[in-house]
Amino acid sequence: EVQLVQSGAEVKKPGESLKISCETSGYIFTNSWVAWVRQVPGKGLEWMGLIYPGDSDTTYSPSFRGQVTISADDSIGTAYLQLNSLKASDSAIYYCARLRFTVLVPRSVPYGSFDSWGQGTLVTVSS
Amino acid sequence: EIVLTQSPVTLSLSPGERATLSCRASQSVSMYLAWYQQRPGQAPRLLIYDASNRAAGIPARFSGSGSGTDFSLTISSLEPEDFAVYYCQVRTNWPPGYTFGQGTKLEIK
Hints:
The structure holds two protein chains of two kinds.
Chain A: E1 3-6, E2 10-12, E3 18-25, E4 34-39, E5 46-52, E6 57-60, E7 68-73, E8 78-83, E9 92-103, E10 111-117, E11 121-125
Parallel strand pairs in A: 2-11
Antiparallel strand pairs in A: 1-3, 3-8, 4-5, 4-9, 5-6, 7-8, 9-10, 9-11
Chain B: E1 4-7, E2 10-13, E3 19-25, E4 33-38, E5 45-49, E6 53-54, E7 62-67, E8 70-75, E9 85-92, E10 97-100, E11 104-108
Parallel strand pairs in B: 2-11
Antiparallel strand pairs in B: 1-3, 3-8, 4-5, 4-9, 5-6, 7-8, 9-10, 9-11
């Protein structure tokens, strides 16, 4: 069974940094992309970026590029999302999700959908 | 940039009724569209991928159709656990990535 288990809820102050983990199991970590998705409570889903752990290739949404860093440690099957210089507007639930790819596209992200999700990590940024 | 527009924003129906949710893309996405269900307090769950394929473990009352720019998700007979928010999602060519619709809330009438 594919599982993605995220680290627990965090409370941070503005300006601080945070690294959220997503521990995977039940599949070959280096063979699938892992994405991060943000959801402000009561709002919709925003794709932030994804990583291919096989070669650590990452792609970011322009909305989040420069604000976050996605990484992976294939020795422990874990992906990470680092949030820098936190602001109150970064308060949200952050999800990791595995991409089930349908069609590979050279030098770009594949066509696909997100077939397994972590439980979400609630981040609260408040002074 | 592809924009997904879901309609209606809110759909009020009773258990046992048929639900039809719509997702329209601002440009053709061929058949590469997915649908998700999100219940309160839970992570999204993949229902349909590539427009019409049910994901593993998804009941047969869920079906997807469409291609190009117009897609629909149909729930043939609503169960109490189906009342949730539904999102559509596609891959975008430029900028390269993925985008979601704004969601349709399916509520009990």
